[in-house]
Amino acid sequence: MYGRLFDSDDLLIPIVILGIGMVLKLLVHLPFLRAEKRMAAEQHRIEKTE
Hints:
This protein is an all-alpha fold. 94% of the residues lie in helices and 0% in strands.
């Protein structure tokens, strides 16, 4: 099945676009994931000192 997807020129373009979109989504979400992780660590540190 995967061979047929890549044999067809018509489907290759949407697959490439989908792949690019997935990479862009990951790049956009990384700063938010880092900020959330930092906030969770800070909250845990505050709870520990109380």
